[in-house]
Batch of 2 targets.
Target 1
Amino acid sequence: MELRFSEAERAFRQEVRDFIAKELPKETRDRMIAGKSPTKQMVVDWQRKLNAKGWAVPEWPREWGGPDWTLGMRYIFREELQMAPAPQPLAFNTNMCGPVIAEFGTEEQKQRFLPRMANLDDWWCQGFSEPGAGSDLAGLKTRAVKQGDHYIVNGQKTWTTLAQHADWIFLLVRTDPAAKKQEGISFLLCDMKTPGITVRPIITIEGGHEVNEVFFDDVKVPVENLVGEENRGWDCAKFLLGNERFGQARVGASRERIRRLKAIASTESLDGGRPLMEDPDFARKVTEIEVELRALEMTVMRVIATESKRKDKKPDPATSVLKIKGTEIQQMCSELLMKAAGPYAWVDGDPEAEGSNDIDVAPDWAFGLAGVYFNWRKQSIYGGSNEIQRNIMAKAFLGL
Amino acid sequence: MDFDLTEEQRLLQDSVARLLTDRYGFEQRKGFMASSEGWSRDIWAQYAELGLLGLPFAEEEGGFGGSHVETMLVAEQLGKALALEPWIPTVVIGGGFLRAGAEAGLRAELVPRIAAGELMLAFAHTERQSRYDLNDVATTAKRDGSTWVINGRKGMVVHGDSAGKLVVTARTAGGQRDARGIGVFLVDATGPGVTRRGYRTVDGQRAAEVEFSGARAEAVLGNPEDGLPLVDQVVDETIVALAAEAVGCMQVAHDMTIDYMKTRKQFDRPIASFQALQHRAADMLVQLEQARSMSYFAAMGVEERDPAERRRNMASVKAQIGRSARFVGQQSIQLHGGIAMTMEYAAGHYFKRLTVNDGMFGDADHWIRFLANAGGLVQAA
């Protein structure tokens, strides 16, 4: 039993840390520390830097530019990005659609899409959820009917993250309405410039524009954009979800938030003039999260260790533990950060805009913290809600 | 990063599991509990046979040469069986003091006797006023020629009634709560000046109230003027065993609950079909897995060389284990329903042991408070 990272892995961590310190633009980092999403340009520039270094697509096979890292190295890489904080390589390109194409796609598809995906020449978005198919994804209704060498797509996708930036969308569509739920679904790639596509923003409770509705009205998708076999798209979907090995544990992200929280709570003072961090109640709440985070980190290590030895690609139900705890911890962090800011957390403003605090009504560090708290309520809903995760555990682990 | 056991470790784990499966069923345990000592000498002899009683001692001293990982593996199995024997007090705590605080000559005398199952030890540290503060020591030790004379009273000395020797904390200098001036002494439990009153604890284990009036110490363990660092170290090592024992208890409590949910029928179907209960069971599993992770971490974190950092590590272990133990224990009762409220049914006994386990050397609240005062686990940005 060896519970520490190897010397090589520790050296790799230092290499990643040094690279980020040298290459990550200060504006990007500052914006992320403030709890805002990086702009499109920031994400693109950063991913191109990573791609030039050979680090943009850790999950891909070597022949398509993957760096052949161990799971431990992939984890370290993501953790360092989260702690910096720096943008992750765009998940839709690198974690979701890319691996599916590399696994199920034709040679032409691979050559056409993968290099541009890795370099973020094309921004991809995910067309899975629908108004009537959320947790019950296989209930999706968007139809694709084959006519000659095209599919004609009609329907609606929703919660489409950053579709406003996207050049392409990967879709789950129903190609055989007569088949059983999971068996009539296909995986299509669709150019967002195709006539008949309408993107409508969804503004979330904190005022941000992350997600969208995407409408398809007689959209023509060439048959060569089908990935894998027709009506076997559910295999692609399952494969894609199974690639999410560390769940949404995001240990590095929580650690970054706790560091930030403790820094703020050490200067912000209570009524009596003492730093908030010296208030026993507050300190105890922070400590409770720190303990849970350490346990979660060790659980991630266990998942990495078992996954490294597994041959099959089925999702490990332990990722449900990571998702539930990881999101609970992140949500607690966002709540405590908001509380640390006291009344100044309440200033409203466009969370996407630069210089939102120009009128100087609150300390810069406090601005938008309530917005992050509101926004992060999404974490226990997306990626298979935490209740769905409990269903998965009940079925897979408990045999209930 | 590798959580695999070595071949020897797997053998050790399997042999303990086999012994306990064969000889330590719930009904057999009831019999042991009802016996005069409250545990089984026969089983103790079996532990000796398997090498469990010499586990942490060096092989050349007559021990098994086990690391903290071995301690963890054995303690988890003992937890699964709710074993009643004084293994932790004798081998982990007493053994810890001997390894880190005894002269080689003393070890040469005692280790073979411990390993053979002839000598049990107990740790006499708690006092009426001390709660979980290891530095709160009113019992005194006064030098008298070449020996020390102990006066005072210790409570909740776990397995103090069957121990042949007691490891006693006593004040050699300073005020009652001073960190310095605490010595650790080995005292013959049957010698003059030692009075013991044994009793049963709620989890079916044994403990004793021990009075020292002019009892002479047989040996000093560590520095008699500054023994608290030794106590801290041994307590930290003991947390490895307590954490693993709790994980063993939680595992069984959880498994029993799942089995019961599948067989118990209400409204014409197994109660396992109700989602509210499924989700509770899933939450139990989350807590169990988080606890298991921290049990592994304990075996690593206790090897930290800086005592302050080591203490922080073990505090985080104890806090998570305690939180998990409370949830898993309480919910195993709730999901069973009335049956788990009965003395005849095992679930309640796991719950009781988990409750006491949480409290040993400080419950989760105590260690959260400690960590909060010590600056937590993550550095501020």
Target 2
Amino acid sequence: MFNSQRFFRLKKKFMRIINIMKKDYRTYLGGSIILIIFLSAAFAPWIAPHNPYSTDVVNRLQGPSLNNPLGTDSVGRDILSRLIFAARPAVYVAFGGLSISIFFGLLLGLTAAYLGGIIDRLIILFFDFVRAFPPLILILVLLAIIGPSLISVIIILGITIMPRYGRVIRAETLSEKEEDYVESARSLGAGKVRIVYKHILPNIFASVLVLGGMDMASMIMWEAGLSFLGLGLQPPLSSWGVMLQESYQYIQTAPLMIVWPSLAIMLTMLGFSLFAESLRVALNPKAGQEGQK
Amino acid sequence: MALVEIDNLKTYFHKKNSIFHKMLDKGPLTVRAVDGISFAVDKKDTFALVGESGCGKTTVARSVLRLVEPDAGSIKFKGKDIYNFTKQEIKEFRRNAQLILQDPRSSLNPRLIVEELISEPFYIHGLVDNDFDLLNRVWDLLDTVGLSKRFSELFPHELSGGQARRVGIARALALKPEFIVCDEPTSGLDVSIMSAVLNLMQELQDKYDLTYLWISHNLQVVRHISNKIGVMYLGKLVELGNSEKIFSNPLHPYTKALFSSIHRVEDRKKNKREILPGEVPSPINPPKGCSFNPRCKYRMEICPKKEPQLEEESENQLVSCWLYNQP
Amino acid sequence: MNALLSIEDLTVQYRTRNGYSLAVEDVNLEIKNGEIFGLVGESGSGKSTLGKAIVKLLPVSAEIPAGKIFFKNRDIITLSEQTINNEIRGKEISMVLQNPQNALNPVFKVGTQLVDVLYFKNNKKIKRKNLKQDAIEMLKKTGISDPEYRFEEYPHQFSGGMKQRVLLAMAFISHPSLLIADEPTTALDVTIEAQILALLKDLVREYGTSILYITHDLGVVSEITDRIAVMYAGKIVESAKTDDLFDEPLHPYTKALLKCLPGYSSKEQLATIPGQVPNLNNKPTGCNFCPRCDYCFALCQKEEPRLREYKADHSVACFLYNQEEKEEAEVEDEKVNEKEGA
């Protein structure tokens, strides 16, 4: 199988994408930020200079020093260590939530567009139902039902954001469905499944990717927001949102404390957006050549 | 026996009736795209359907390939009604009948390379046992349509219009079909490219005994390539028969006007052009009687009252006009 | 000077990632008063670029490194954007484009769009109300029935042919001296095309406007134009009176093009032109058409032929028709051969 022509073709296409991405600074900038976050998430216990939970009330609210490069928080915990450990929930929420929304968005969006009729209407009704609530209210209600925890935050964010994907995917599928090449495939005898995964999916993937790149960051923001309200992770577990929440009270005495988690969130957003953009450009078959006039 | 027989085909598009529409009591909105068409295409023929935009020729093409559900009438392929096919028969039909679409580039998926595009039919019909063997078949097909091997790695947007057209032809030929529906296959191509594509398609017809149903509004191309034509106006055939005969002696007033509108370099000094007044009426609400009567300069009393039928006027030439078929 | 428009050595290039792409190269042409001039070429020959250059509507990536465009003895290239907007575009020179479907703004009434042309032509000095009658008159002239009623309608209520009539009305309402028509009938059906061409001829007769008719359709130009220039890869390869060009085409490209037309040779195989149009970023040295030409000889690969008058009013850019240069080259070739032989 791995020596087959099909594999070579895939490899060639893959290499083309890599080669285009290699020339794009966004790949490196975004990629390295993502890499740092992943590495800190994976190796947190080994990288972090201190135990993120060990308190030291004497040295509370300290500024940066050699021992605590980013200072300490209100109970004297090392901020850098907490920041590194907090990369884990960030990655979980971003990937988990996004996977849920993209998976169900694709499933429902493609089904709606391809089957049409009453099923289409029902699915749209469901999307509208979810979207009709202000997201915060929906989240509060759902959290009240399943209780606050990392898993529930992931599931809830996934469900709340899903209609965005469903809508976009449905709309794009409907317009791609009318394209000549779909009709051409139909006349060759291609079945619905083949048309969807071979022809429509690759062509709508770019828009999903762009949305995903932006949402990845907003997922982290949502988690931060929920934790800030005390509905996400519960202290002493650290997440960037929890840290924001804690430092908020000390904004006058230790203003630097709020900067670090904000910076982490901002950089993550930047990294994912840049990388997604670079990937989107490379996926376009017209990339790498001069535009036709 | 004819390869494809179309009998009284009717394809209507029903527009959704909104509440407002019902309140105004306007009755159902039905676009009569194809309104009772019968013809037969024999093996190795090139049957051309000509007419202006909106006359329903493309809908006929799609119905013949089972891509649109007709409202009435039957389409027989090798004597069997294609809308009563079993699953197995449909699969076989999809191998036997192919489609070449108008826009050479947009009929190719922009994200697949030529090799994938041409090998797709083999995958769809489960005809791939060895991938390297498949690559050879792709190269053979490229060679058949006059492209070199290096094209197999290009994306559609890297091809010129003519090359993309050739890839489309290769894709259609892959499963060795007997019947190809060509929907405006030369529109949008430059003259020099178009002539090469036409030559290629004629060569292929001789080589593989292909039958073409050729949909076009380019009458010069039709005259060159077809041996039978049907002239459509507002979803109906107004003239049908031998191409040579109709071009040299068009009978129906619409055919006459249509042929007279062709701009040809040879005719530039003749300057006797018949200009058809007005525009094609809406197929939602076609004129009563003969649908051409509001624009016809030979209009008689009977024309708006009763619809003429397609009747044989001379050998191999049928026309539906009261001038010839006395009521 | 009796020419209305005269273009001298015009070159237009597009900046691309792979360097400059020469869309129009050393073009010379003249359009006289009241004449219909056909500009024929295949896609990518630079004919539309040339049309846009005349009214300076080129995209930002385009540059004009050399050449002059004299319109009524003023060099358009040196005029400021404001002057062109106030005095030339829509007043002295109008344009009709290929796709009538997109050329009208869908949210404004057809009448309003038509009146706007007059309103701005008069530098907003006359009230719109007072211009309405002129606009209705113009609609009537372009063969739109019931113009008072149609005046109040929106573009989507017009068919393709009707829209093209409106666009012609918009082009002629300001009594321009020159109309640039870029493939105005390509998107239309044949019977509608015949209507529009007849209308165009009538309007020209009435207003005495000169027309630069840009198209790829040899059949159409053969009928309506007085003179024709054939473009290939950014250059004019032949230019002549219409009848001369079709009766006796000189340039191998023109000849080949005419042979490619179906209907010329009935049922037999059609003639084709082998090969491809050259890449505009990287044109061959020598004659652009040489790689596809049946008559190509040594000189063609080395030098570029200039457009020269072969006989009265019939110019061609080909060494076949330039005996002196051809003979010189042959002598040189022989010398080379002798040397190689020795």
